[in-house]
Here is the input.
Amino acid sequence: MQFETRDIQSAIGWYLAHSIAGASTRYGKGTEITLEIVNDVTSNSDNISNTINILVSVFKPEKDDIDENTAAANLARAIASDTGTVHIPDAARGRVDLYASTNGLLDLGNSFDAFNQVHEACTVAALPTMTPVRKGQKIATIKIIPFTVHKDIIEQLQSLPPAITVHPFTPFKAAMIDTHISASPKTRRVTENRLQSFEGTLHKHVTCTHTQEEIASNIEAYSRDPDIDCILIAGRAAIADRRDDIPAALISAGGTVEYLGMPVDPGNLLMLGHLGKKLVIGLPGCARSPAPNGADILLARFAAKLKTTGADIQKMGRGGLLNGALTYYADFSAKSQDTNADNNTAAIILAAGQSSRAQGRNKLLGKIGSETVIRKTTDLYKAIVTSTPIIVLGHDADHIIQTVGNNGIRTIHNPDHTSGMASSIRAGIQAIPDTAELVFIALGDMPFVHKETIQQLITAAQDNPDDGIFIPTLGKKRGNPVLWRRPILSLFENLAGDTGGRQIIHANEHLVREVPVHDPAILIDLDTPERLDEYGIE
Here is the structure.
């Protein structure tokens, strides 16, 4: 390809390398220059300067050059497998994006880097190998840098083995053995959701004591079940040694321990084993949380029908630090469950009070710009929690309904709202859906709380399954909202009057997890006219 800077008068038959404005229109790069274009450009006063000539960067293909779109399309067909799991749309401006045609596990073959090593003119960027992907998700992009590429380069690329494929997830059935003293329904739900992410189902579930004999008996029973494809073991105690109860039970049942431990965190204390043709996974303790861990990696590979060996696990350390990094498993799991955060979150927004300290002003109807206080508060939770937020109404209910509308919220009336906050909390608890496990009890007059604060509380609950009350803190001060695990909400049944959750918190400090946040809004109180004026609420 020839590439020059020329006087536009002498560039007829060449192609623009950069766009340029004419008097009537703008001509994009790649446009062949004609006499009409020259006249239009030279008559544009913006292009006239002290110099006589208008200089343009131009190019002209030579013999055996291939244009950028044809080159990109050829490269896409060369690098993508022909299994039908990768969709290749038409090229445009030298680029082709590749998309998954199925739910599965992205696999970049050994030849992937070679495609980028043939020539700098041709580039391929992709998601990391072994990333779980969904049908229709972009998995790679191809870009041809110059406007043309010599055919020899394309032929060299076409000689390489394909390097991008998606291994489809195949439905499978799992059995779970839980040896926790009081097996939590949450562990089962989390496991069901985790399996569903990879098109698996929890077909059977059993609890037993944490002894080698009991575990071995259940492993052996499930190994004979033709409907079971893999066995998951959630132990009361972590696996610390091959001679520990869970590995010993697998061996006692006639199985083998392929590998104990993995260079993935969370998920270090995981066991990979087999009994006959069935996969056996000793789950790490963190698998009781929906947060990504090493078990997700093994289950994704299993669903994609990829055998996992100890040697495979040894290579998982690169990218194995899942917390605090871009985690494709977290993003994939969230999409698979169609949630914004955790698939069991709800919010009760208390909006029944009379604003008695505000001296005649209904603080919830006060305006922040064009929106009311209660509307801004409601919109915050609508954007994050996965169940429809519940607003408990009482005083001035009709006006509040008018400002918040009916889209994406549920309003309930507390006829006993004058008795105090406790009755409104109980009314809200009665209305939360059965699927909700994490519940915010929020005050309607806290519109300034950051979205990140809400998400931090949810993340803390995911990462700390043994805690039940999650309170945001700024310095040493506790604020609102508070996130509660559903079982603890039963303690509100005995509260009366204007008592919120403080009494329950004081009596159950052992269940409290303080969550430090950088959000002064968790401490803002809008109860008085002075405070409303201070924050510009009209």
Remarks:
- Residues 338-342 have pLDDT under 50 and may be disordered.
